[in-house]
């Protein structure tokens, strides 16, 4: 039946000026960013000259590097830049002190330091990664120029470098926070609201209607993306907003509750779908009736979190009595046991959903963080082989360039080492690093040419800082504008760095074509060396080989659930899974067969790992010598082995261990207690292993077709 009345008129055409309004708003945001960058750049240069710093250009370059559209990002990047600069300066002082007049050992130790910092950058995210890069090339910037002339000046060089960087950061932070600031806290609040509303909307749709597995997998991907995005924003906004900083622990707890609730829903959803596909779907239908009140409680898009938490709590309070009534209508041990498994999962999910809604309410309430909130840290997942490759590539590049400097005696070889160090670190964590560095190199070349025109045809006619600004301004504005455009940002970064680096603005400006040519040549050789190093030994980020390793690492998380200490294990397991999956799918074509397989394995890992954690918690206080404890230990080890190296033999061993443990638990379950809980967890894992739509079905060689329906079948 059509719901559209015949009298409804066709929609009117979109006004011609609607697109223009969007365009003008985008351009306004772009030019405000350009304005802030330009003011910070030239104000920093003027202050550096007034303070008689040796290299005002370094302070000015700092403003270009740390400037961002949002003030919170500027403060976060500035904080880690200060940290990296201080650590790099300390390393420079130590390395020069150890080998002040021995160039070869100095170069070896410096190369190892830079390579170690580059490797560290690959193991961290956001601006923490940037701090490692800074610590590496700051040591080179401070130590390399003085080691060839007067090593005793290394302390003065370090002080000058730190002073210039701090000045650039201070000015940039003030400008970004005062001239039409764009607050990161607004983005964080929007992300929290979006995560909360989207998740509740997804729950309403899933609980009030059947959802296919493919849609569930995509929803899991969205959950992963939302969890990682919120953590990234939280780690940056704390530098901008005192309120967000005070509520940082609450945000972490909110994110933890989010991952816990979503992870609990997955096995419940899969179990009900499995039971509904059975010849006798009574248990699945009873579970649908059992969770129906929860779906009704979630209806209404504008519910207050406190009121919603009360409604969910009321559903949880009535769950036991409703379950008892529905259970009485089932026939056969298999249906009752399956229903009990689903009831336990639903009880846990309702509790964690209530905690998630309660955590949302606490974000707006004046509540001090608890001890549990303070322990809720997001754990990242890393592959250390990628870091090893980055270490080897950077160390080899630096050693070869150092050998070139030592053998040739070319003074400009220091510039080659410095820039190669910078770009080797900056792009060590991106896929297609050779291509990315090549784009930066072309921008850098254009920046050098623009600097030549500016320096020898414009600035030669200017005198004083005001006229220097007037002469340089048209050439400089091009850089920040391109940086603000996504398709030109990399080229714009190279252009701006080339322009500012080669001009090397000081109180007494130099107009020496020979120096300009020599330095420009050394800069382009450095860019070529960086591109060549990435081409010969490319980063592993985004490669199919690394994705396979990361998938193996994701499956190995079941081993973490099986063996790691139980304290804080659940959140560690969920957050590291989310981070690993986010890294994998970021470089996989959406909708591809590989993407579907990745999501299927991720769901299997979450479901199985969570069950193992609960199994271990159930038997934690049981004597290790009991048959129940030994059976659970055998299941835990067998499943960890299967996920570490999936195969039919491993599947059969895990299946046999499950069958034996289920027999032991069923024999003791009549008295209730631990054995009854263990039986339900074991049954859940067994149902997942024999599910014909699970990724584990490919390893099922059992001919018995009644595995899903008969709890006594082995």
- Give the integer mean of the pLDDT values: 80
The coarse overall form would be elongated
Decide which structural class fits the backbone.
mainly alpha
How helix-rich are the residues, as a percent range? over 70%
Tally of alpha and pi helices: 27
Largest sheet: none
Order of helices and strands: HHHHHHHHHHHHHHHHHHHHHHHHHHH
User: How far apart, in Å, are the first and last alpha carbons?
Assistant: 50 Å
Per DSSP E runs of 2 or more residues, the count of β-strands stands at 0
β-strand percent reads under 5%
Radius of gyration: 31 Å
Poorly predicted runs are 1-13, 703-714
Describe this structure in words.
The protein is an all-alpha fold. The protein is 75% helix and 0% strand. The protein has 27 helices and no strands. The chain has helices spanning 17-50, 56-66, 71-98, 103-122, 126-147, 154-178, 184-207, 213-237, 242-246, 248-276, 282-297, 305-328, 333-362, 371-374, 384-408, 413-426, 433-458, 465-483, 489-503, 513-536, 544-555, 557-563, 569-585, 593-618, 627-644, 648-668, 674-689. Helix 4 (103-122) packs antiparallel against helix 5 and helix 22 (557-563) packs parallel to helix 24 (593-618). The protein starts with 16 loop residues before the first helix and ends in a 25-residue tail after the last helix. Mean pLDDT is 80; it is low at 1-13 and 703-714.
Put the structure in a nutshell:
The protein is mostly helical.
Task: Furnish the topology, listing elements before pairings.
Elements: H1 17-50, H2 56-66, H3 71-98, H4 103-122, H5 126-147, H6 154-178, H7 184-207, H8 213-237, H9 242-246, H10 248-276, H11 282-297, H12 305-328, H13 333-362, H14 371-374, H15 384-408, H16 413-426, H17 433-458, H18 465-483, H19 489-503, H20 513-536, H21 544-555, H22 557-563, H23 569-585, H24 593-618, H25 627-644, H26 648-668, H27 674-689
Helix pairs in contact: 1-2, 1-6, 1-18, 2-6, 2-19, 3-4, 3-5, 3-6, 4-5, 4-15, 4-16, 5-6, 5-16, 7-8, 7-11, 8-10, 8-23, 8-24, 10-11, 10-13, 10-23, 10-24, 11-12, 11-13, 12-13, 13-27, 15-16, 16-20, 17-19, 17-20, 18-19, 21-23, 22-24, 22-25, 23-24, 24-25, 24-27, 25-26, 26-27
């Amino acid at each position: 039946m059509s719901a559209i009345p015949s009298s409804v008129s066709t929609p009117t055409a979109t006004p011609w000026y609607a697109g223009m309004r969007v365009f003008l708003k985008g351009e306004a945001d772009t030019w405000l960013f350009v304005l802030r960058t330009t003011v910070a750049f030239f104000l920093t240069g003027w202050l550096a000259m007034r303070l008689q710093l040796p290299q005002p250009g370094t302070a000015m370059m700092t403003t270009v590097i740390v400037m961002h559209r949002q003030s919170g990002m500027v403060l976060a990047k500035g904080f880690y830049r200060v940290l990296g600069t201080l650590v790099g300066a300390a390393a420079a002082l130590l390395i020069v002190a150890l080998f002040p007049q021995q160039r070869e050992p100095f170069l070896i130790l410096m190369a190892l330091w830079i390579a170690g910092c580059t490797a560290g950058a690959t193991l961290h995210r956001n601006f923490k990664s940037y701090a490692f890069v800074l610590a590496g090339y700051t040591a080179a910037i401070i130590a390399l120029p003085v080691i060839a002339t007067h090593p005793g000046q290394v302390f003065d060089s370090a002080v000058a470098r730190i002073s210039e960087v701090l000045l650039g950061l201070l000015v940039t932070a003030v400008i970004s926070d005062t001239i039409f600031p764009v607050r990161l806290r607004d983005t964080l609040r929007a992300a929290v609201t979006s995560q909360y509303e989207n998740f509740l909307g997804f729950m309403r749709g899933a609980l009030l209607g059947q959802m296919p597995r493919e849609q569930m997998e995509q929803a899991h991907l969205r959950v992963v993306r939302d969890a990682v995005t919120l953590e990234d924003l939280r780690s940056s906004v704390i530098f901008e907003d005192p309120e967000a900083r005070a509520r940082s622990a609450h945000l972490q707890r909110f994110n933890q509750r989010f991952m816990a609730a979503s992870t609990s829903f997955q096995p419940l959803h899969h179990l009900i779908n499995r039971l509904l596909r059975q010849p006798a779907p009574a248990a699945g239908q009873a579970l649908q009736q059992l969770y129906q009140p929860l779906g009704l409680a979630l209806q209404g898009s504008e519910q207050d979190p406190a009121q919603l938490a009360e409604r969910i709590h009321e559903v949880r309070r009535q769950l036991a009595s409703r379950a008892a009534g529905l259970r009485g209508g089932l026939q056969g041990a298999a249906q009752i046991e399956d229903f009990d498994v689903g009831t336990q999962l639903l009880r846990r999910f309702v509790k964690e959903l209530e905690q998630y809604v309660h955590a949302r309410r606490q974000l707006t309430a004046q509540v001090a963080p608890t001890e549990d909130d303070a322990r809720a840290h997001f754990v990242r997942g890393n592959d250390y082989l990628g870091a090893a490759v980055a270490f080897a590539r950077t160390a080899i590049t630096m050693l070869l360039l150092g050998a070139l400097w030592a053998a040739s005696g070319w003074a400009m070889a220091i510039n080659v080492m410095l820039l190669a160090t910078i770009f080797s670190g900056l792009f060590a964590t991106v896929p297609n690093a050779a291509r990315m560095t090549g784009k930066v190199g072309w921008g850098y070349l254009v920046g050098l040419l623009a600097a030549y025109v500016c320096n020898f045809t414009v600035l030669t006619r200017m005198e004083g800082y005001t006229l220097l600004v007037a002469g340089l301004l048209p050439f400089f504005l091009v850089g920040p504008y391109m940086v603000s455009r996504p398709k030109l940002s990399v080229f714009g970064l190279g252009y701006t760095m080339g322009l500012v680096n080669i001009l090397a603005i000081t109180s007494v400006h130099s107009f020496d074509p020979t120096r300009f040519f020599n330095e420009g040549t050394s800069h382009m050789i450095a860019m070529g060396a960086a591109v060549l190093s990435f081409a010969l030994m490319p980063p592993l980020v985004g490669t199919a080989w690394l994705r396979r390793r990361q998938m193996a690492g994701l499956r190995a998380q079941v081993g973490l659930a099986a063996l790691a200490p139980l304290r804080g294990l659940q959140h560690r397991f969920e957050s590291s899974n989310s981070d690993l999956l986010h890294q994998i799918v970021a470089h996989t074509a959406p909708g591809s067969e590989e993407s579907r397989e990745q999501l299927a394995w991720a769901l299997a890992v979450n479901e199985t790992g969570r069950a193992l954690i609960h199994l271990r918690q159930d038997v934690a206080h049981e004597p290790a010598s009991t048959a129940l404890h030994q059976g659970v230990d055998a299941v835990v080890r067998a499943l960890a082995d299967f996920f570490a190296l999936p195969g039919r033999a491993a599947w059969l061993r895990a299946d046999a261990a499950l069958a034996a443990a289920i027999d032991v638990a069923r024999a003791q379950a009549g008295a209730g207690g631990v054995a009854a809980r263990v039986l339900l967890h074991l049954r859940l894992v067994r149902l997942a292993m024999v599910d014909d739509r699970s990724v584990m079905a490919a390893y099922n060689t059992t001919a018995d077709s009644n595995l899903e329906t008969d709890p006594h079948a082995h």
